[in-house]
Amino acid sequence: MKNYFLFAFFLTLAFFQMSCSETFDHNEQKNQIRQRLTEEGLLDSAIETDEGIFIVITQEGIGTEMPDINSTLNVAYSGWLFETGELFDSSWGDLIQIDLNSTILGWQYAFPYFTDETKATIYIPSIHAYGNTQDRPAGITGVGIPKGSVLVFDIELKSFF
């Protein structure tokens, strides 16, 4: 039942992302992420994708194959609001199975940098997260996502196929 709700949550978020037309200042959000990573001494080890997603690998994975948009992922994750540090969603350490093409764009851009058993923290500007036009209601943690939020996810990719 829990996996069904998580799948529905991500699917809804993916469709919401496509409907957003208003944008917050993407460059300003990337600069805020860079500043935080600099303050934490992580900028030099961070990967910045062409889309402005920042990936900090905390545990190198194994193998050389990486997921693509059509992959199904076995992941555990927690998501926080960048600005406040509030936890808005988590699989609570349990692995969930989800199709990468049904997730937010930020995940779609980040996971091609992962191999099996990679652990990482990803920073996603709002344009590639849950959108910029309306707040997202609170989920299981009781924390909603304000429009234009930069998001941070701790993710473990256990495997994919």
Summary, kept brief:
The chain is α+β, with helices and mostly antiparallel strands. 24% of the residues lie in helices and 27% in strands. It is globular and about 35 Å long.
Task: Describe the structure in your own words.
It is a single chain. With 161 residues, the protein is of the alpha+beta class. It is 24% helix and 27% strand. The chain contains three helices and seven strands, in the order ααβββββαββ. Strands 1, 2, 3, 4, 5, 6 and 7 form a seven-stranded antiparallel β-sheet that branches. A hairpin with a 5-residue loop joins strand 3 (72-81) and strand 4. It is globular and about 35 Å long. The two termini are 22 Å apart.
Q: Look up the CATH topology.
A: Chitinase A, domain 3
Query: Can you give the mean pLDDT?
Result: 89
Strand runs, count: 7
Shape: globular
Please state roughly what percent of the residues sit in beta strands, choosing from under 5%, 5-15%, 15-25%, 25-35%, 35-45% or over 45%: 25-35%
Blueprint of the fold:
Elements: H1 2-19, H2 26-39, E1 47-48, E2 54-59, E3 72-81, E4 87-90, E5 96-99, H3 105-110, E6 118-124, E7 151-160
Antiparallel strand pairs: 1-2, 2-6, 3-4, 3-5, 3-7, 6-7
Question: Which terms would index this structure?
Answer:
alpha+beta; 161 residues; globular; Chitinase A, domain 3; 7-stranded antiparallel beta sheet
